[in-house]
Structures are given as structure tokens and as C-alpha cells.
Amino acid sequence: MAEAKNGSRSALAGLIALALLSAPIAVEAPALAATSVVAVVNKTAITSGDVSRRVAFLKLQRRNGNLQKLAKEQLVEEALKREEIARIGMSVSTAEVDQSFERFASSNKMTAKQLNGILDQAGVGAAHFKSFIAISMSWPRLVSARYGAGSRGKMSNQDLVTRLLENKQKPVTTEYFLKQVIFVVPASKKGIAGKRKSEAEKSRASFPGCDQAMEFAKNYRDVSIRNLGRVMEPELPPEWKPLIEKANGGTTGTRVTDRGVEYLAICNQRQVSDDVAAEMVFRAEDLGKEEQGGENPNSKKYLEELRAKAQIVLQ
């Protein structure tokens, strides 16, 4: 999946009808009023202003029903998620949120500035929308880390057998053995990134294979090799997945990152079909459902646990 089509974008596309923000609709910013606390989730206050912005957001989505009640329910859930995301330390970065915001604007044939204007006019505001984006991006990663590849034992044998019976055959996935080649660019020398990128791209043609990777690195200045070991296809980071799939063995294309210019060497790959692979695939399917706006049962279970332990006071 290309970056613009994965993770956050698919999640947002499922939660917001893209046509709504580009279609001419009548929006009216809520009148300014004194802000009061309407709920407290643990130590986090939810104000009437927060609710007003969420109601305006729901109207953009053409939602019906008791929007005040729905807005408050959503904000309580988001407060629980936000606190847990912060506790575990799995929040996406501000840069990732800004990029998602810009992609969302671009997909609706407008600039980020124009999207800002529409959100302000509607009474939502860019800050409220970006907070929503941040949680929409971070929460599935947290659920995946707890119940998915990062915590393989979380699926009980009974759950696994049930899914296998429902699936009627054991899923097959690709297992990769990877090494990461990093042409380091110091933070104080970001200006040389272009030169290092050219150097990294040229080096791919002479990469001798994983067994000789360390010797290969000695031929270049400030190049490090990281052994990533065994990685199954559902575990692949979304930013690397399309490059790995296009590589057909050998090395991937390069990416400029905070560390420098990187590419991956595919040491080996094979098709596997065992219980570990099956669980990986099932977890990826659950995450995919959530990203498409569906309900991941693990997400619901996680949220229910947080709610049970939380102190929630509704005014």
C-alpha cells in the first residue's frame, strides 16, 4: 500500500465522507458562549466548547440523531484512548498528523489553507480535526501492538482455532529476513541529504548480499547496518511495505528519514502457513477493518477495559 493510501488515510476516509467537505453545504459556526465542563474522564475535562466543535464535525458528516449525546460519547471515548496512547508512548508525531491533514485536503481538491477555512467556518476548527486525526492514527497502532504482532500470545488457542474454522483454511503470508542499510546524515548536516541519497542509490547496484553487508559498509563513510531479522508481511511498516513488494528480492528503493538515507536488503523471503502466520494475518485483518471504519473486536475489548477502570463523571 502506498503511504497516501494506507493507515490514517483509509481510516479517515471510512469515518468522513470525502465529498462533504468539497460539496457546497450550509454551515454556521456556533455562537460564542461561556465554556463549562460537561464531563471529566479521570483528570481530563471535556468542555461545552469541545462538544460544540464535535457536533459541528458530526454535521459535516451528515450524522443524524441526538448529536449532543453522540458528541459527548465520542469525546469520552477519545479521552480514554488519548490517555492510554500517552501512557504507552505510541502517539503519532505532529509531522505525521500535518501530512495526513494535507493529504486529506489534497484528496478533496483543496489546499490545507482552504480546508482550514472550511473547518473554521463550520465551527470545527483545524485543531479539533487534527486531534481527531491523531487519535484515529495512533489508536489502531496501539491495539495492534497489544493484540497483534507485538504480542502474539494475546490470541488464545480457542480464538485462533475458531478463526481457522471460520476461514476454512490456514492463511498464507510472506516471511522476510531483512537488513537495513543506513547512510547516516547528522542532524547538523541535513543539507547533504541529497548527496547522500545519490550515494545510497548508486550503492545498491554493488550490494553483495546480506552475508557480506558489514564488509560492504566499510567501503563507505558513515554507513551502518542493522539486522532486522524475521519480519512477516503483516508486520511490515506501512512506509516500507510498497518498497519491499516492488523490490522482488535484492534491495528496496531509498527513503530519507530522520537518521539519513535508508534502504532495506531482502536477505530471504518465503511463503509460510503456520499458527504464528495465521495469527499475524488475522490481526492484520482486524486492524484493516478498523482502518476502513469497521469495528475491530480487539479495539472494543480494549476500550471496555479502559472504561471499566476509569473515573468518568458526566455533568
Entry summary:
This protein is an alpha+beta fold.
Whole-number mean pLDDT = 79
Helix content: 40-55%
Largest sheet: 5 strands, antiparallel
Order of helices and strands: HHEEHHHHHHEHHEHEEEHHE
Kindly estimate the percentage of residues that lie in beta strands according to DSSP.
Answer: 15-25%
Number of helices: 13
Counting helices, strands and paired strands, the structural category is alpha+beta
Describe the secondary structure blueprint for this structure:
Blueprint: H1 7-15, H2 18-22, E1 37-41, E2 44-47, H3 48-60, H4 67-88, H5 94-107, H6 112-122, H7 126-147, H8 157-167, E3 173-184, H9 193-203, H10 213-217, E4 223-232, H11 241-247, E5 250-251, E6 255-256, E7 260-272, H12 275-291, H13 297-309, E8 312-314
Antiparallel strand pairs: 1-2, 1-8, 3-4, 3-7, 5-7, 6-7
Helix pairs in contact: 3-4, 4-7, 5-7, 7-12
Structure description:
- This protein has 315 residues and is α+β, with helices and mostly antiparallel strands.
- It is 51% helix and 16% strand.
- The protein is built from 13 helices and 8 strands.
- It has helices at residues 7-15, 18-22, 48-60, 67-88, 94-107, 112-122, 126-147, 157-167, 193-203, 213-217, 241-247, 275-291, 297-309; strands at residues 37-41, 44-47, 173-184, 223-232, 250-251, 255-256, 260-272, 312-314.
- Strands 3, 4, 5, 6 and 7 form a 5-stranded antiparallel β-sheet that branches. Strands 2-1-8 form a 3-stranded antiparallel β-sheet.
- Strand 1 (37-41) and strand 2 (44-47) form a beta hairpin.
- The longest helix is centred in the first third of the chain and has 22 residues, at 67-88.
- The chain is globular, with a radius of gyration of 23 Å.
- It starts with 6 loop residues before the first helix and ends with a strand.
- Mean pLDDT is 79; it is low at 1-32 and 149-153.
